Amino acid sequence: MPVLWLRVALGCYAVGLIYALVALTRTSDLLGRIVLHATYLGMVFHFVSLMEAVVLSGHIAQASVHNPESLLAFLIMTVFMIVYLVYKTTSPGIIVFPVVFLLTFVAATGQQPFLLMSSEYKKGWLAAHIGLILTGYAALIVSFGSSLLYLVQEHSLKAKRPGGVLSRLPALEVIDDIGYRSLLFGFPFMTFGLIAGTIVAQAAYGRVNFLDPKIFLSILMWAVYLVMVFTRWNSGWRGRRAAYLATCAFVAAVVAWAANYFSTIHRFVQS
Amino acid sequence: MNLRLIGVNHKSAPVEVRERLAIPESHLPDALKQLAQHPGIEEGMILCTCNRVELLTNVKNGTADLRGFLRDFFHVDAAQLEPHLYEYREQDAVRHVFRVTSSLDSMVVGEPQILGQVKEAYATARAVGAVHSQLDQLLTRAFAVAKRVRTETAVGSSAVSVASVAVELAKKIFGSLNGKHVYLVGAGKMSELAARHLMAHGAASIFVANRTYDRAIRLAQKFDGQAIEFSRLYDTCDRGDIVITSTGSPKAIFRKEHGELFLSRRKNRPMFFIDIAVPRDVDPEMNKLDGIFVYDIDDLQQAVASHVADRKKEAERAEAIVNTEVERFHQRLQTLDVVPTIVSLQEHLETIRQAEIDRVRGRLGPITPEQEMAIETLTRGIVNKIMHTPISTLKTAAREAEATTIVDTVRRLFNLQEKKAAKSGSDSGAQN
Description:
The complex is a heterodimer of chains A (about 270) and B (about 425). Chain A has about 270 residues and is mainly α. Helix content of chain A is about 75%, strand content about 0%. Chain A folds into 2 domains: about 1-115; about 120-270, no CATH class. The two termini of chain A are about 30 Å apart. Chain B has helices at about 15-20, 30-35, 65-75, 80, 90-100, 115-125, 135-150, 160-175, 190-200, 215-220, 235, 255-265, 295-365, 370-400, 405-415, 425-430, and strands at about 5-10, 40-50, 50-60, 85-90, 180-185, 205-210, 225-230, 240-245, 270-275, 290-295. Chain B has a 6-stranded parallel β-sheet with strand order 7-6-5-8-9-10. Chain B has a 4-stranded antiparallel β-sheet with strand order 2-3-1-4, with helices on both faces. In chain B, strand 8 (about 240-245), helix 12 and strand 9 form a beta-alpha-beta unit. Chain B is elongated. The interface of A and B includes residues 154, 157, 160, 172 and 235 of A.
C-alpha cells in the first residue's frame, strides 16, 4: 500500500514537473495555482505513504532506511512549501519539482537496495541520523535551486532585457535571501546528522573507518557546505561564485548519496 | 445642458502661459464662487494641475463670456492668451472631460494622478455650490468611464517615464525598496525626479554629492537627506544601494576598480547604478562585475520605448471606450431633455380630460358605476391615442440633432408652460 499512495503522489508531482518545463518558455498564473494545489495533494498522499511504511515496518528508522528517496522528496517539498509561505513564490519549483519527481519516481518504482537492519543498532540515533541528514539535503537542494535562479535573473538584468521569459522571477535579493536562509537552515541539520551517524557507526562497528567512501564523501560534502556558509557569512559571496560553490556542494551530496551503493558499512547488511 | 469648456494644457501652452493661469489651492473656492456668479453661468468647475487649467461650465442659453472671465480673473492680455486656448462645446466637451479623467490627455498617458485631481476639483466645486445637477451627472459618468478604461485596458499598467522605469528595475534587483539608500551624484533635475520616485516607493534615505556643495545641501534638504562633499565621493558612495549619476564630467567618474572597492566594502551586496549623464559617468565595464548593475540613459529609454509601444495600443482601445461612452451619455442627456415636455404634455391632456368629464357629468344625470367606468376608459383611450404619436416622435427626436426644434414646436402647439418637471418624476414619466 505505501507504494500505491506514493504513486498517486507521483502523479500529483508530475503536474509540478510540467509546470517546471512550461516555466522555461512562458509564465502562467493559472498553472501556478494548479501546481500549488496538485503538490499540496501530492504531499498529503506522500505523507500517508510514509506513515504507512512506519506502521508496517514498526519503526521510523526501519521505514526511512527502507526508502530514503521518498523521505528526502517529502522533506524537499516541505522546504519548498515553507519558502512559498514566506516569499509567495513558486519559482524555485523550476528546479525543485524535477528533483522531487525524480526522487519520488525512483522510490515508487525502483528496487530497494537497502536491506533491513537487525535490531541491535541504536534505532533512535539511526532515525535521527536519517531525518537530520535528509532535511539537510532538502535545504541544500532548495539553496542550490535558488543559486541557479539567481544566475538566470542576474544574467537577464545584466543583459538589459528585463521583462524577458523569466520576468516573473522574484527580485534578485529575494532569491538570494531564499538561498542563504535555506543554506543556514540546512547546516545544523547536516552537522548533527553526521554526528548521529558517527554514533550509530561506532555502536555498530566499534570504530569509524574514515576511508570508507561513504564516510569520506560525507565529510567532504560537509566541508564544502561549511566553506559555503563561511564565505557567504564572511564576505557575502553570492552570484556566480556562490553558485559554483553550491554546485560543488550539490555534486558532493549526490556523490555521497550514491556512495550508499558502494559503502560496506552504510548498507546495514549483516555480513 | 449647454456645456462649454475652455482651457490650456501642456500641448497648447508653454509653461510660462500655464503658470500665469495657475490658481493656488487656497484661492480655488473664491475663484469658483466668482465663476458661478459670472453672468450666464449656471454651473462651473475649475481643474488646475501643473499640466492644465480648464474651466468646465454649464451655461444658460449658450451665452457666457468665459474668455472675459479668464481675462478679468487673471488680469492677462486676451491677445496673448488666445493662441493657446482651446474651447469645446457640448459633445466635444463631454469627450474632452472623459479623456482627461481617463488620463488619455495626460503628458504621460495612463498616469494615475489625474483622476484624483479631477475628483478633488469636483469636490471643491461641489463644496462651494458651484456644481449641482447637470455637471454632477457628467462628472459621475466621467469617473465611471475612467474606471472602465483602467480595468478594461492596460493603459495605466506599465511604467512609462525614465524615473518609473528606474524604480521598476530597482525593484527587480532589491525586491522592496524599503530601507534602501539612494545616492545622488550631481544635483540635476532628472536625478531629482528619479530620487523622488524612489523615495515615494519606500527608499529610506538619500545622500547628495555635488561639485557645488551648496546645491548638494539645497537638494538634500528637500528630501531630508545628507549632503556630501564631492571629495569624499569614493569614501561614501558604497553607502548607496542605488546610485544616480548626472554630472557634467567629460570622463567616467566610476571605473571598474571603484566598483570592486565598493563591493568589498559592502560585502558584495548588489549595487544599482543609474547613469543619466551624457557623456556617461559610469564606465560600462562596471556592469561586468558580479553584483553591480549599470543602466545608462539609453538602456533606460529602451525600456521606456518598449512600454510606450504597448501603451499606444492600449490607448487606442481606451479611446474607443471613451467614444462609445460619449455617445451613450449624449443619448441619455437628450432623452432627459425631452422628458419634461412629455410630462407636461401628459399633464396638460389629463387636465383637459378631467375638466371635460366634470363639465358633462351634471348633464348626464345619475349613472351606474359601469357607465362611469366606460366613460373613463373611453376618454383615456382617446387621450392616449392622441398622445402616442407626439410622444414617440419626441423620444425618437431626442436621439437626433433637431430635438430642440421639435420640443419647441410641441410646446407651442399645445401651449405648454415653461416649467421644468422634477427629474425624479420625469424619469418615470418617460417610461409611459
